[in-house]
Write a structure and sequence with these properties.
This protein has a single domain, classed as q2cbj1_9rhob like domain (Jelly Rolls). The protein is 26% helix and 24% strand. It has 7 helices and 13 strands. The protein has a 7-stranded antiparallel sheet. Strands 5-12-7-10 form a 4-stranded antiparallel sheet, with no helix packed on it. The longest helix has 17 residues. The radius of gyration is 19 Å and the shape is globular. It starts with a helix and ends in a 6-residue tail after the last helix. The N terminus is likely disordered.
């Protein structure tokens, strides 16, 4: 799929709906395997804009004080070198990300992949964004995990993530790996990385995966996966930083009758969450009306 084709597919007017981007075969492959590789999802110019915006946010440590920038794979102590820096919601700090062709194409793809009988397409919504940096030579591995293991255990979620490569991404740089068909069934037992409750990142308790499939990409390519698909990315041993930008879309979550057992969430006490809670309390105190005396 060429950049020109993608740009045309993303174009909309008041009198017509956006054209589909994925073929029926690609949609079927995604539902069978739980992931899908796209050789191209946006233009080189769009990739350059996104990469520059995200690099600037990492350099400025945007979101650090509110718990939105943190070390995904480490204890996140102040002053320590982060082995796997992540920013949650980068489009809140860099609004140009929300105007990207990637974002427009992702919305079309989300509606294609999350469609189901009886669901109004308007119920398929933006699910947020985040970005992960694996610094050259020392960027840590992202262990095998399922995204839904991080989420609210009172709900079953129907969501996808679209992972954009912002440079050519090899196995040695930390491309994504997936286990075909692993999205079927329940969430597997997880724990904080290294079984350290100070670490935000999760890993499978049984991480002995032998049937993973690597998905190296050229810049501007993407992989899409369901929330329960097992995935992993190796450490970055190359001389080039590995930037990735991930956007999500979801259909309405379904409330469970009982809370899912997630002991890994219950025992985590991370510096990231402490900063987020402190920032939220500060905002609430400013917004609260004065007490009458």
């Amino acid at each position: 799929m060429t950049s020109a084709t993608l740009a045309a597919a993303a174009a909309t007017t008041s009198s017509c709906a956006p054209a589909d981007i994925l073929s029926a075969r690609q949609v079927a492959d995604f539902h069978r395997d739980g992931y899908l590789v796209l050789e191209r999802i946006t233009s080189d110019a769009d990739v350059a804009l996104i990469r520059a915006s995200l690099a600037g946010l990492f350099a400025a440590r945007r979101g650090r004080e509110t718990g939105d920038q943190f070390d995904l794979a480490g204890s996140d102590e102040e002053g320590a070198t982060a082995g796997l820096p992540q920013i949650l919601g980068p489009s809140r700090f860099a609004p140009e990300l929300g105007r990207s062709t990637y974002r427009a194409n992702g919305e079309i793809i989300g509606r294609q992949l999350l469609a189901r009988p009886g669901l109004d397409p308007g119920q398929i919504r933006w699910g947020g964004d985040h970005t992960i940096l694996k610094p050259a030579r020392y960027g840590k591995a992202t262990p095998w995990h399922q995204d839904e293991a991080y989420w609210d255990p009172w709900y079953d979620h129907s969501s996808i993530s679209i992972w954009l490569a912002l440079q050519d991404t090899s196995i040695e740089m930390g491309c994504m790996w997936f286990v075909p068909g692993s999205h079927v069934g329940e969430i597997r037992p997880h724990r904080p990385i290294n079984d350290d409750p100070r670490i935000h990142g999760l890993e499978l308790v049984d991480g002995s995966i032998t049937n993973g499939v690597p998905c190296p990409l050229r810049a501007g390519g993407a992989v899409i996966h369901q929330a329960r698909t097992l995935h992993y990315a190796a450490a970055n041993t190359t001389a080039v930083d590995r930037h990735a930008y991930i956007i999500g879309y979801g259909a309405p979550a379904v409330k469970r009758t009982t809370r899912r057992d997630v002991p890994w969430q219950d025992r985590q006490r991370t510096p990231r969450s402490a900063r987020a809670e402190a920032a939220a309390k500060a905002v609430a105190s400013v917004a609260a009306p004065p007490t009458a005396t």
